[in-house]
Amino acid sequence: MDQILLARLMDIGEKMLVAGAEVNRVEDTLSRMAKAYDVSRVDVFTITSSIVVTVIANDGVPMTQTRRILAYQTDLDKLSGLNELARTIAQNKPDASYIEQEMNRLEQKAKYPAWTQFVIYGGIAAVFTLFFGGTAQDALASGLLGMVLKWLVRLFQGLENNAVIIHVVCPFLVGLLAVGMIRWGLGENLEWILIGNIMLLIPGVSLTNSIRDIISGDTMAGLLRMSEAILISLSIAIGFGLASLVLGGIIL
Amino acid sequence: MMQWFWAFLGSLGFSLLYNVRGKNVFLAALSGMLGWMVYSFASPRFSNEFLSYFLAAMVVTLSAEAFARWQKAPATTFLIAGIIPLVPGKALFYTMRAAVGAQRGYFLAHGALTLSIALAIAAGIMAAASLMRTLMWRMGK
Q1: What is the ipTM of this complex?
Q2: Does residue A82 sit in the same domain as residue A121?
């Protein structure tokens, strides 16, 4: 085990966390991989925004590396690939260059093209509007708004990296547009149109995962994730609240 | 019944969004639909939201674990999209609405509901996951 090899293992841990793995899984995978090589001790500490690994090699020299995670991009196909790679590493103990090569291969794996994202956003918004009881017209309006939302999210992610600001501005604009659409005669029930779009923004998975983390003993990670989820929910509320204020209390 | 179909499509959409590929997309959507079916059966019978969501989340997790073993993919692949129809988006929306409208009573009631649903889902996932782990351990012996 040397620093380069440890760095490659850290890459895997980092990519897993970014792609949507639970804290538990990342800690477990990192320590399994590191233990496969000749080491006497491995300590891994992971929270949602950081990974710290200290390895003590058999000659007694300790090594520590840290990764800071700033943004997530859920990609379950990549996660699945990383998982497989990690299992291979724990079994075969390959060298650093092999891991690097495999990682590059994973990065180049096919993704759905960018335009499908718009369709998917629109589709999800429309489906959830119907799911919660909206009419076909509501679903149409909601689907259109979902596509606009994707465009807005992309636009603002390019300009501004702050999740709070994005989650205030986008619901604000979506709220205004939804009212405009109904005025214009497209869609009937504001509530269902908005809920369909909210399903796209709401950190429901983080909220549920945070409680999972807490129950399974990763209290720190769970609390961090939960405060992130609450912060985002509040931002969405503020965004719609602002739209409501501007329009004189029509929305909420 | 229509709602089952929307739950299926909703989970399908999210699995595409999270870059699940191939047959797994349909399996994830199937998990989502199964979960919602269990909820819609349980909710009127037990008139207990916590229990209904708990059971639904357990079924989603068990099916996700089963698909994971069958397809040799991590259970998360099916779980994240499958759990989506259960996620308390509506309750959270009402909570936010009450917060913005400064209606304290509604805010507390909806907020408590949102949290209890989130807790029920988390508990269901945990219960099913540990059940699965125990079973696998037994079988492995």
Answers
A1: 0.86
A2: no
